[in-house]
Write a structure and sequence with these properties.
Number of helices: 16
Radius of gyration: 24 Å
Structural class: alpha/beta
Distance between the termini: 75 Å
Protein backbone atom coordinates (compact mmCIF):
# COMPACT_ATOMS: atom_id res chain seq x y z
CA UNK A 1 0.00 0.00 0.00
CA UNK A 2 1.37 3.45 -0.91
CA UNK A 3 2.55 5.66 1.94
CA UNK A 4 1.52 8.75 0.00
CA UNK A 5 -1.99 10.22 0.28
CA UNK A 6 -3.88 10.74 -2.96
CA UNK A 7 -4.08 14.45 -3.85
CA UNK A 8 -7.74 13.99 -4.80
CA UNK A 9 -8.55 13.08 -1.20
CA UNK A 10 -7.26 16.37 0.21
CA UNK A 11 -7.39 18.90 -2.65
CA UNK A 12 -9.40 19.80 -5.73
CA UNK A 13 -7.90 20.14 -9.21
CA UNK A 14 -10.53 22.28 -10.93
CA UNK A 15 -9.31 21.94 -14.53
CA UNK A 16 -6.77 19.74 -16.24
CA UNK A 17 -3.67 21.83 -16.79
CA UNK A 18 -4.17 24.08 -13.75
CA UNK A 19 -1.01 25.02 -11.90
CA UNK A 20 -2.65 24.86 -8.47
CA UNK A 21 -5.15 22.77 -6.55
CA UNK A 22 -7.38 23.92 -3.68
CA UNK A 23 -6.87 22.25 -0.31
CA UNK A 24 -10.00 20.71 1.19
CA UNK A 25 -8.34 20.31 4.58
CA UNK A 26 -5.38 21.88 6.36
CA UNK A 27 -2.20 20.42 4.87
CA UNK A 28 0.76 20.06 7.19
CA UNK A 29 4.36 20.67 6.14
CA UNK A 30 6.11 17.51 5.00
CA UNK A 31 3.00 15.63 3.96
CA UNK A 32 3.45 13.76 0.67
CA UNK A 33 0.71 13.68 -1.96
CA UNK A 34 0.46 11.43 -5.00
CA UNK A 35 -1.07 12.83 -8.19
CA UNK A 36 -0.93 12.35 -11.96
CA UNK A 37 2.33 14.26 -12.26
CA UNK A 38 4.14 12.29 -9.56
CA UNK A 39 4.55 12.93 -5.84
CA UNK A 40 4.82 16.34 -4.21
CA UNK A 41 5.77 17.26 -0.68
CA UNK A 42 3.88 20.03 1.10
CA UNK A 43 6.58 22.66 1.63
CA UNK A 44 4.76 24.57 4.36
CA UNK A 45 1.34 24.74 5.98
CA UNK A 46 -1.49 25.20 3.46
CA UNK A 47 -4.81 26.17 5.10
CA UNK A 48 -8.08 24.70 3.94
CA UNK A 49 -9.44 26.62 0.95
CA UNK A 50 -5.99 27.86 -0.07
CA UNK A 51 -3.91 26.90 -3.11
CA UNK A 52 -1.02 24.45 -3.37
CA UNK A 53 1.37 24.47 -6.35
CA UNK A 54 1.39 21.34 -8.47
CA UNK A 55 4.59 22.16 -10.40
CA UNK A 56 7.63 24.38 -10.22
CA UNK A 57 6.88 27.89 -11.50
CA UNK A 58 9.48 30.54 -12.27
CA UNK A 59 8.96 34.15 -11.20
CA UNK A 60 6.85 35.96 -13.78
CA UNK A 61 5.02 32.79 -14.85
CA UNK A 62 1.26 33.06 -15.33
CA UNK A 63 -0.62 30.86 -12.88
CA UNK A 64 -3.83 29.08 -13.88
CA UNK A 65 -6.90 28.04 -11.89
CA UNK A 66 -10.34 27.23 -13.40
CA UNK A 67 -8.37 26.93 -16.65
CA UNK A 68 -7.87 30.72 -16.55
CA UNK A 69 -5.05 33.06 -15.51
CA UNK A 70 -5.41 34.23 -11.89
CA UNK A 71 -2.13 36.19 -11.74
CA UNK A 72 1.59 35.70 -12.05
CA UNK A 73 4.27 34.37 -9.74
CA UNK A 74 6.08 37.22 -7.98
CA UNK A 75 8.79 34.81 -6.81
CA UNK A 76 9.94 31.33 -7.75
CA UNK A 77 7.40 28.72 -6.64
CA UNK A 78 8.17 25.06 -6.03
CA UNK A 79 5.75 22.18 -6.35
CA UNK A 80 4.15 21.79 -2.92
CA UNK A 81 4.39 25.48 -2.00
CA UNK A 82 1.52 27.42 -0.55
CA UNK A 83 0.46 29.86 -3.32
CA UNK A 84 -0.91 33.10 -1.96
CA UNK A 85 -0.21 36.82 -1.59
CA UNK A 86 3.47 36.25 -0.73
CA UNK A 87 4.22 34.76 -4.14
CA UNK A 88 1.21 35.49 -6.39
CA UNK A 89 0.32 38.93 -7.74
CA UNK A 90 -1.83 40.58 -10.38
CA UNK A 91 -1.21 40.00 -14.04
CA UNK A 92 -2.01 42.45 -16.83
CA UNK A 93 -5.62 42.07 -18.02
CA UNK A 94 -5.45 42.12 -21.79
CA UNK A 95 -8.31 40.02 -23.13
CA UNK A 96 -9.28 39.62 -26.76
CA UNK A 97 -13.00 40.14 -26.31
CA UNK A 98 -15.41 37.99 -28.25
CA UNK A 99 -19.15 38.57 -28.46
CA UNK A 100 -21.68 35.75 -28.55
CA UNK A 101 -19.14 33.04 -29.36
CA UNK A 102 -19.95 31.04 -26.22
CA UNK A 103 -23.75 31.06 -26.37
CA UNK A 104 -25.41 28.02 -24.81
CA UNK A 105 -29.06 27.23 -25.42
CA UNK A 106 -31.09 26.87 -22.23
CA UNK A 107 -33.92 24.50 -23.12
CA UNK A 108 -37.29 25.76 -21.84
CA UNK A 109 -38.60 23.68 -18.95
CA UNK A 110 -41.22 21.08 -19.79
CA UNK A 111 -42.73 21.32 -16.31
CA UNK A 112 -44.00 24.80 -15.45
CA UNK A 113 -43.27 25.49 -11.79
CA UNK A 114 -45.29 27.93 -9.71
CA UNK A 115 -45.06 29.93 -6.50
CA UNK A 116 -47.62 31.70 -4.34
CA UNK A 117 -47.23 35.42 -4.96
CA UNK A 118 -49.08 38.73 -4.77
CA UNK A 119 -50.25 39.66 -8.27
CA UNK A 120 -50.08 43.43 -8.73
CA UNK A 121 -52.23 45.61 -10.96
CA UNK A 122 -49.47 46.04 -13.55
CA UNK A 123 -48.91 42.27 -13.86
CA UNK A 124 -45.78 42.15 -11.72
CA UNK A 125 -45.77 39.71 -8.83
CA UNK A 126 -44.57 40.36 -5.30
CA UNK A 127 -43.11 37.80 -2.95
CA UNK A 128 -43.87 39.95 0.11
CA UNK A 129 -46.52 42.50 1.12
CA UNK A 130 -44.87 45.50 2.82
CA UNK A 131 -45.66 49.08 3.71
CA UNK A 132 -42.62 51.12 2.75
CA UNK A 133 -41.80 54.53 4.21
CA UNK A 134 -39.52 56.10 1.60
CA UNK A 135 -37.64 59.17 2.79
CA UNK A 136 -36.78 61.88 0.27
CA UNK A 137 -33.99 63.24 2.48
CA UNK A 138 -31.84 62.20 5.43
CA UNK A 139 -33.60 64.84 7.55
CA UNK A 140 -36.74 62.68 7.63
CA UNK A 141 -34.92 59.42 8.38
CA UNK A 142 -35.42 59.39 12.15
CA UNK A 143 -39.09 60.29 11.81
CA UNK A 144 -39.61 57.45 9.31
CA UNK A 145 -38.00 54.97 11.68
CA UNK A 146 -40.17 56.24 14.56
CA UNK A 147 -43.29 55.58 12.50
CA UNK A 148 -42.11 52.13 11.41
CA UNK A 149 -41.21 51.23 15.01
CA UNK A 150 -44.86 51.64 15.99
CA UNK A 151 -45.54 48.48 13.99
CA UNK A 152 -42.86 46.14 15.25
CA UNK A 153 -43.62 43.07 17.32
CA UNK A 154 -47.03 41.69 18.33
CA UNK A 155 -49.01 44.58 16.82
CA UNK A 156 -48.48 43.02 13.37
CA UNK A 157 -50.14 39.80 14.51
CA UNK A 158 -53.45 41.48 13.68
CA UNK A 159 -52.32 41.68 10.04
CA UNK A 160 -51.14 38.16 9.15
CA UNK A 161 -50.93 38.89 5.41
CA UNK A 162 -48.70 41.94 5.84
CA UNK A 163 -44.98 41.30 6.18
CA UNK A 164 -44.11 44.53 7.93
CA UNK A 165 -43.53 48.26 7.80
CA UNK A 166 -40.03 49.23 6.69
CA UNK A 167 -38.41 52.66 6.89
CA UNK A 168 -36.27 53.13 3.77
CA UNK A 169 -34.05 55.90 5.06
CA UNK A 170 -30.72 57.11 3.69
CA UNK A 171 -28.01 59.75 4.16
CA UNK A 172 -28.62 62.02 1.19
CA UNK A 173 -31.32 64.01 -0.64
CA UNK A 174 -30.02 67.50 0.16
CA UNK A 175 -26.71 69.28 -0.39
CA UNK A 176 -26.56 67.53 -3.74
CA UNK A 177 -27.21 68.47 -7.35
CA UNK A 178 -30.41 66.65 -8.38
CA UNK A 179 -29.41 66.60 -12.05
CA UNK A 180 -25.96 65.14 -11.30
CA UNK A 181 -25.11 61.47 -11.78
CA UNK A 182 -25.42 60.93 -8.03
CA UNK A 183 -28.76 62.73 -7.96
CA UNK A 184 -30.12 60.62 -10.80
CA UNK A 185 -28.96 57.41 -9.13
CA UNK A 186 -30.61 58.34 -5.82
CA UNK A 187 -33.88 59.29 -7.51
CA UNK A 188 -33.83 56.07 -9.56
CA UNK A 189 -33.16 53.99 -6.45
CA UNK A 190 -35.93 55.56 -4.38
CA UNK A 191 -38.40 55.27 -7.25
CA UNK A 192 -37.37 51.65 -7.75
CA UNK A 193 -38.32 50.83 -4.17
CA UNK A 194 -41.48 52.94 -4.35
CA UNK A 195 -42.70 50.95 -7.35
CA UNK A 196 -41.43 47.55 -6.19
CA UNK A 197 -43.91 44.64 -6.39
CA UNK A 198 -43.22 43.82 -2.71
CA UNK A 199 -44.39 47.29 -1.62
CA UNK A 200 -48.18 47.34 -1.36
CA UNK A 201 -48.42 50.58 0.59
CA UNK A 202 -46.16 53.63 0.27
CA UNK A 203 -45.66 56.66 2.48
CA UNK A 204 -43.22 59.19 1.00
CA UNK A 205 -41.85 61.33 3.81
CA UNK A 206 -39.75 64.49 3.49
CA UNK A 207 -38.72 67.48 5.55
CA UNK A 208 -40.12 70.06 3.17
CA UNK A 209 -37.18 72.17 2.00
CA UNK A 210 -34.79 69.58 0.55
CA UNK A 211 -33.21 69.49 -2.90
CA UNK A 212 -34.92 66.19 -3.73
CA UNK A 213 -38.46 66.89 -2.58
CA UNK A 214 -41.45 64.62 -2.13
CA UNK A 215 -43.20 66.02 -5.18
CA UNK A 216 -40.13 65.52 -7.35
CA UNK A 217 -39.82 61.95 -6.18
CA UNK A 218 -43.48 61.21 -6.90
CA UNK A 219 -43.59 62.97 -10.26
CA UNK A 220 -44.45 60.48 -13.00
CA UNK A 221 -44.02 57.59 -10.56
CA UNK A 222 -44.81 54.40 -12.45
CA UNK A 223 -46.16 52.43 -9.49
CA UNK A 224 -48.74 49.65 -9.85
CA UNK A 225 -52.23 51.16 -9.74
CA UNK A 226 -53.07 49.18 -6.58
CA UNK A 227 -50.18 50.66 -4.56
CA UNK A 228 -51.58 52.72 -1.69
CA UNK A 229 -49.67 56.03 -1.79
CA UNK A 230 -49.57 58.84 0.78
CA UNK A 231 -47.16 61.77 1.20
CA UNK A 232 -46.11 63.96 4.11
CA UNK A 233 -43.54 66.59 5.04
CA UNK A 234 -42.45 67.22 8.60
CA UNK A 235 -42.62 70.99 8.24
CA UNK A 236 -46.21 70.99 6.98
CA UNK A 237 -47.33 68.35 9.49
CA UNK A 238 -46.20 70.38 12.51
CA UNK A 239 -42.89 68.77 13.49
CA UNK A 240 -41.62 65.33 14.31
CA UNK A 241 -44.11 64.30 17.00
CA UNK A 242 -47.10 65.45 14.98
CA UNK A 243 -45.76 63.70 11.89
CA UNK A 244 -45.23 60.45 13.78
CA UNK A 245 -48.83 60.55 15.02
CA UNK A 246 -50.22 61.35 11.58
CA UNK A 247 -47.93 58.87 9.81
CA UNK A 248 -48.87 56.10 12.24
CA UNK A 249 -52.56 56.68 11.52
CA UNK A 250 -51.94 56.59 7.75
CA UNK A 251 -49.96 53.36 7.96
CA UNK A 252 -52.58 51.71 10.16
CA UNK A 253 -55.21 52.45 7.51
CA UNK A 254 -52.94 50.93 4.85
CA UNK A 255 -52.45 47.79 6.92
CA UNK A 256 -56.20 47.20 7.11
CA UNK A 257 -56.45 47.29 3.32
CA UNK A 258 -53.26 45.35 2.57
CA UNK A 259 -54.31 42.53 4.89
CA UNK A 260 -57.19 41.84 2.51
CA UNK A 261 -54.77 40.77 -0.23
CA UNK A 262 -54.15 37.09 -0.94
CA UNK A 263 -51.35 35.06 -2.47
CA UNK A 264 -52.17 33.09 -5.60
CA UNK A 265 -50.39 30.55 -7.77
CA UNK A 266 -48.31 32.17 -10.51
CA UNK A 267 -45.66 30.75 -12.86
CA UNK A 268 -42.01 30.90 -11.82
CA UNK A 269 -41.42 33.08 -14.89
CA UNK A 270 -42.69 36.00 -12.80
CA UNK A 271 -39.67 35.83 -10.49
CA UNK A 272 -36.75 38.27 -10.59
CA UNK A 273 -33.80 36.80 -8.67
CA UNK A 274 -30.81 38.89 -7.57
CA UNK A 275 -27.44 37.06 -7.50
CA UNK A 276 -24.90 38.43 -5.01
CA UNK A 277 -22.01 37.27 -2.86
CA UNK A 278 -20.04 38.58 0.08
CA UNK A 279 -17.32 37.36 2.40
CA UNK A 280 -16.10 35.05 -0.37
CA UNK A 281 -13.52 32.35 0.27
CA UNK A 282 -11.53 29.78 -1.67
CA UNK A 283 -14.60 27.56 -1.95
CA UNK A 284 -16.99 30.21 -3.29
CA UNK A 285 -16.18 29.52 -6.93
CA UNK A 286 -16.25 25.76 -6.34
CA UNK A 287 -19.44 25.22 -4.34
CA UNK A 288 -22.06 27.90 -3.68
CA UNK A 289 -21.47 30.09 -6.74
CA UNK A 290 -21.68 27.36 -9.40
CA UNK A 291 -24.60 25.80 -7.53
CA UNK A 292 -26.38 29.16 -7.61
CA UNK A 293 -25.45 29.37 -11.28
CA UNK A 294 -27.23 26.08 -11.90
CA UNK A 295 -30.28 27.39 -10.03
CA UNK A 296 -30.12 30.53 -12.19
CA UNK A 297 -30.19 28.38 -15.32
CA UNK A 298 -33.18 26.43 -13.97
CA UNK A 299 -35.04 29.69 -13.41
CA UNK A 300 -34.10 30.97 -16.87
CA UNK A 301 -35.50 27.72 -18.28
CA UNK A 302 -38.76 28.65 -16.54
CA UNK A 303 -38.76 32.05 -18.27
CA UNK A 304 -37.70 33.95 -15.15
CA UNK A 305 -35.14 36.74 -14.80
CA UNK A 306 -31.85 36.53 -12.89
CA UNK A 307 -29.51 39.47 -12.27
CA UNK A 308 -25.78 39.22 -11.59
CA UNK A 309 -24.08 42.30 -10.10
CA UNK A 310 -20.87 43.69 -8.52
CA UNK A 311 -18.92 45.04 -11.49
CA UNK A 312 -15.55 45.31 -9.65
CA UNK A 313 -15.90 41.59 -8.92
CA UNK A 314 -16.35 40.50 -12.50
CA UNK A 315 -13.31 42.53 -13.59
CA UNK A 316 -10.83 40.08 -15.08
CA UNK A 317 -13.58 37.60 -15.96
CA UNK A 318 -15.71 39.92 -18.08
CA UNK A 319 -14.45 38.18 -21.23
CA UNK A 320 -16.39 35.09 -20.15
CA UNK A 321 -19.58 37.15 -19.99
CA UNK A 322 -19.11 38.92 -23.33
CA UNK A 323 -18.84 35.52 -25.00
CA UNK A 324 -22.34 34.83 -23.67
CA UNK A 325 -23.82 38.16 -24.77
CA UNK A 326 -26.77 37.84 -27.14
CA UNK A 327 -25.43 40.77 -29.18
CA UNK A 328 -22.31 42.86 -29.53
CA UNK A 329 -24.27 45.81 -28.10
CA UNK A 330 -25.02 43.93 -24.89
CA UNK A 331 -21.40 42.81 -24.50
CA UNK A 332 -20.06 46.28 -25.23
CA UNK A 333 -22.39 47.77 -22.63
CA UNK A 334 -20.69 45.58 -20.02
CA UNK A 335 -17.23 46.65 -21.21
CA UNK A 336 -18.32 50.29 -21.08
CA UNK A 337 -19.25 49.88 -17.43
CA UNK A 338 -15.86 48.25 -16.70
CA UNK A 339 -14.15 51.23 -18.40
CA UNK A 340 -16.21 53.63 -16.26
CA UNK A 341 -15.05 51.82 -13.14
CA UNK A 342 -11.40 52.13 -14.11
CA UNK A 343 -11.79 55.91 -14.32
CA UNK A 344 -13.85 56.05 -11.14
CA UNK A 345 -11.35 54.19 -8.94
CA UNK A 346 -8.36 55.96 -10.50
CA UNK A 347 -9.94 59.31 -9.60
CA UNK A 348 -10.07 58.07 -6.01
CA UNK A 349 -6.44 57.00 -6.04
CA UNK A 350 -7.08 53.28 -6.35
CA UNK A 351 -7.27 50.46 -8.87
CA UNK A 352 -9.73 47.64 -9.46
CA UNK A 353 -7.18 45.11 -8.21
CA UNK A 354 -7.36 46.60 -4.68
CA UNK A 355 -9.80 43.72 -4.13
CA UNK A 356 -9.87 41.04 -2.55
CA UNK A 357 -10.54 42.09 1.03
CA UNK A 358 -8.54 40.86 4.06
CA UNK A 359 -11.34 38.39 4.80
CA UNK A 360 -11.27 37.08 1.24
CA UNK A 361 -7.51 36.57 1.49
CA UNK A 362 -7.82 34.78 4.81
CA UNK A 363 -10.28 32.46 3.06
CA UNK A 364 -7.82 31.65 0.29
CA UNK A 365 -8.48 34.21 -2.47
CA UNK A 366 -5.41 36.11 -3.65
CA UNK A 367 -6.15 38.34 -6.65
CA UNK A 368 -9.25 39.99 -8.09
CA UNK A 369 -8.78 37.79 -11.17
CA UNK A 370 -9.22 34.68 -9.04
CA UNK A 371 -12.13 36.18 -7.11
CA UNK A 372 -13.94 37.31 -10.26
CA UNK A 373 -13.60 33.93 -11.98
CA UNK A 374 -15.41 32.39 -9.03
CA UNK A 375 -17.95 35.21 -8.78
CA UNK A 376 -19.21 34.97 -12.38
CA UNK A 377 -20.12 31.33 -11.73
CA UNK A 378 -23.26 32.65 -10.00
CA UNK A 379 -24.56 33.46 -13.49
CA UNK A 380 -24.60 29.85 -14.70
CA UNK A 381 -24.30 29.25 -18.45
CA UNK A 382 -27.34 31.06 -19.89
CA UNK A 383 -26.96 33.79 -22.54
CA UNK A 384 -26.48 37.33 -21.23
CA UNK A 385 -29.59 39.16 -22.46
CA UNK A 386 -29.11 42.68 -21.02
CA UNK A 387 -26.82 44.96 -19.00
CA UNK A 388 -28.31 47.63 -16.71
CA UNK A 389 -27.00 50.63 -14.85
CA UNK A 390 -27.36 50.82 -11.09
CA UNK A 391 -30.99 50.59 -9.89
CA UNK A 392 -32.28 50.67 -13.47
CA UNK A 393 -35.51 48.72 -13.86
CA UNK A 394 -34.84 45.19 -15.14
CA UNK A 395 -37.22 44.37 -17.99
CA UNK A 396 -35.56 41.61 -20.05
CA UNK A 397 -36.17 37.96 -19.10
CA UNK A 398 -33.26 35.56 -18.81
CA UNK A 399 -29.80 36.09 -17.34
CA UNK A 400 -28.87 39.77 -17.02
CA UNK A 401 -26.26 41.97 -15.35
CA UNK A 402 -26.50 45.16 -13.26
CA UNK A 403 -23.62 47.57 -12.69
CA UNK A 404 -23.18 47.87 -8.91
CA UNK A 405 -20.26 48.29 -6.48
CA UNK A 406 -18.95 45.22 -4.71
CA UNK A 407 -20.02 46.61 -1.32
CA UNK A 408 -22.80 44.21 -0.39
CA UNK A 409 -25.57 46.48 0.99
CA UNK A 410 -25.14 48.96 -1.88
CA UNK A 411 -25.14 46.18 -4.45
CA UNK A 412 -28.24 44.45 -3.07
CA UNK A 413 -30.02 47.81 -2.78
CA UNK A 414 -29.44 48.34 -6.51
CA UNK A 415 -30.70 44.86 -7.35
CA UNK A 416 -33.89 45.35 -5.34
CA UNK A 417 -34.44 48.82 -6.80
CA UNK A 418 -34.20 47.18 -10.23
CA UNK A 419 -37.00 44.79 -9.32
CA UNK A 420 -35.44 41.73 -7.67
CA UNK A 421 -38.15 40.09 -5.57
CA UNK A 422 -35.82 37.49 -4.02
CA UNK A 423 -32.03 37.67 -3.53
CA UNK A 424 -29.61 34.75 -3.19
CA UNK A 425 -26.41 35.65 -1.34
CA UNK A 426 -23.45 33.28 -1.17
CA UNK A 427 -20.85 33.61 1.58
CA UNK A 428 -17.80 31.72 2.73
CA UNK A 429 -16.62 33.86 5.62
CA UNK A 430 -20.13 34.42 7.01
CA UNK A 431 -22.39 37.35 6.17
CA UNK A 432 -25.18 38.72 8.33
CA UNK A 433 -26.82 40.73 5.55
CA UNK A 434 -30.61 40.79 5.29
CA UNK A 435 -33.07 42.62 3.13
CA UNK A 436 -36.44 44.34 3.04
CA UNK A 437 -38.73 44.31 1.17
CA UNK A 438 -37.02 41.49 -0.79
CA UNK A 439 -36.01 38.42 1.23
CA UNK A 440 -32.35 37.33 1.16
CA UNK A 441 -31.44 33.63 1.07
CA UNK A 442 -27.94 33.13 2.49
CA UNK A 443 -25.97 30.20 1.09
CA UNK A 444 -22.82 28.95 2.84
CA UNK A 445 -19.91 27.84 0.66
CA UNK A 446 -18.57 25.47 3.31
CA UNK A 447 -20.12 23.36 6.03
CA UNK A 448 -17.87 24.77 8.76
CA UNK A 449 -19.29 28.29 8.45
CA UNK A 450 -22.79 26.87 8.01
CA UNK A 451 -22.56 25.04 11.34
CA UNK A 452 -20.79 27.88 13.15
CA UNK A 453 -23.39 30.46 12.01
CA UNK A 454 -26.32 28.06 11.73
CA UNK A 455 -28.94 30.62 12.80
CA UNK A 456 -27.78 33.06 10.11
CA UNK A 457 -27.56 30.68 7.14
CA UNK A 458 -30.27 29.09 5.00
CA UNK A 459 -28.42 26.55 2.86
CA UNK A 460 -25.13 24.62 2.99
CA UNK A 461 -23.27 23.74 -0.21
CA UNK A 462 -20.17 22.41 1.50
CA UNK A 463 -21.13 18.87 0.56
CA UNK A 464 -19.93 19.58 -2.97
CA UNK A 465 -16.37 19.47 -1.63
CA UNK A 466 -16.85 16.40 0.55
CA UNK A 467 -18.68 14.52 -2.19
CA UNK A 468 -22.01 14.17 -0.38
CA UNK A 469 -23.74 16.28 -3.03
CA UNK A 470 -23.14 17.71 -6.48
CA UNK A 471 -23.32 21.16 -8.02
CA UNK A 472 -26.48 20.11 -9.84
CA UNK A 473 -28.17 18.71 -6.73
CA UNK A 474 -27.23 21.76 -4.67
CA UNK A 475 -28.49 24.00 -7.47
CA UNK A 476 -31.82 22.21 -7.49
CA UNK A 477 -32.01 22.68 -3.71
CA UNK A 478 -31.43 26.42 -4.16
CA UNK A 479 -34.08 26.52 -6.91
CA UNK A 480 -36.64 24.87 -4.62
CA UNK A 481 -35.68 27.23 -1.77
CA UNK A 482 -36.25 30.25 -4.03
CA UNK A 483 -39.77 29.03 -4.87
CA UNK A 484 -40.52 28.32 -1.20
CA UNK A 485 -39.25 31.72 -0.03
CA UNK A 486 -41.10 33.45 -2.86
CA UNK A 487 -44.24 31.74 -1.55
CA UNK A 488 -43.76 33.17 1.94
CA UNK A 489 -41.31 30.88 3.74
CA UNK A 490 -39.14 33.06 6.01
CA UNK A 491 -35.39 33.22 5.53
CA UNK A 492 -32.95 33.20 8.44
CA UNK A 493 -32.39 36.96 8.09
CA UNK A 494 -36.15 37.61 8.07
CA UNK A 495 -36.54 35.55 11.23
CA UNK A 496 -33.93 37.86 12.78
CA UNK A 497 -35.81 40.92 11.44
CA UNK A 498 -32.78 42.06 9.46
CA UNK A 499 -33.01 44.46 6.55
CA UNK A 500 -33.77 47.83 8.11
CA UNK A 501 -30.15 48.94 7.93
CA UNK A 502 -29.27 47.34 4.58
CA UNK A 503 -31.02 49.93 2.42
CA UNK A 504 -27.89 51.79 1.24
CA UNK A 505 -28.23 53.70 -2.06
CA UNK A 506 -24.99 54.25 -3.97
CA UNK A 507 -23.77 57.80 -3.34
CA UNK A 508 -21.84 59.52 -6.12
CA UNK A 509 -20.86 63.09 -6.84
CA UNK A 510 -20.18 66.33 -5.04
CA UNK A 511 -22.01 67.47 -1.91
CA UNK A 512 -22.40 71.24 -1.68
Amino acid sequence: MSEHADLRDVALLLRDGDDVAVATEDLAEGRTLRHARGVLTVAGPVPRGHKIALRDLAAGTQIHKYGQVIGQATAAIRAGDHVHAHNLGMDAVDHDYEFGTGLVTITPATQIRTFQGYVRADGSVGTRNYVGIVTSVNCSASTARMIADQFRGPILDAYPRVDGVVALSHDSGCGMVPASEGGRILRRTLRGYATHPNIGGLLVLGLGCEMLGVQTLLAELDAPADTLIERMTIQESGGIRATVRAGTAVVRTMLDRLDERRREAVPASKLVLGLNCGGSDGYSGITANPALGHASDLLVAQGATTVLAETPEVFGAEHLLTRRAVSREVGQRLLDRIAWWHKYVEAGGGTLDNNPSPGNKAGGLTTILEKSLGAVAKGGAAPLTAVYEYAERVTEPGFTFMDTPGYDPVSVTGLVAGGATVVCFTTGRGSVLGGKPAPVIKIATNSEIFQRMREDMDLDTGGIVTGTTTIEAAGEQIFEAVLAVASGQLTASEDLDLGRDEFVPWQLGAVT
